[in-house]
Description:
- Strands 1-2 form a two-stranded antiparallel sheet.
- Helix 1 packs across helix 2 and helix 2 (44-70) runs antiparallel to helix 3.
- The protein starts with 25 loop residues before the first helix and ends in a 19-residue tail after the last helix.
- Helix content is 48%, strand content 5%.
- The protein has a domain at 26-105.
- By secondary structure, the chain is mainly alpha-helical.
- It has helices at residues 26-38, 44-70, 86-103, and strands spanning 73-75, 81-83.
Amino acid sequence: MNAFEPKPFAIVRETEPPGPPPTLDATGAALWCAVLARRRFTAPDLLAVLEHACASHQRAEQLRQIISIEGAMLATGDDGLKANPLLSHELQCRSLAARLLCKLLPAEDRPLRMGRPTNRHG
Length: 122
């Protein structure tokens, strides 16, 4: 091919984002669709991270519904109250979902790390 001949080109069309995995219910599927509406992921590893984030969010919402029925405080046998143990599980699920969703952000959009600076000598 010489310099004056036109170069072949390919037409690339954006495909529809993949649908939510069957393991997700309506809550997890809604988050899946919301994330993929804003960003396009095709790599299987990023889709797996997104699936785990959606599953964790889904679990947190399930726990929130149980807590709203049982209450945030539970009666103990000696006429006292204690915090519902599901509160900590809900918090853990929400924290995991947030961390996984942060991994899907491009580096320039990630929040700055908080805490002590690293010990760099240089």
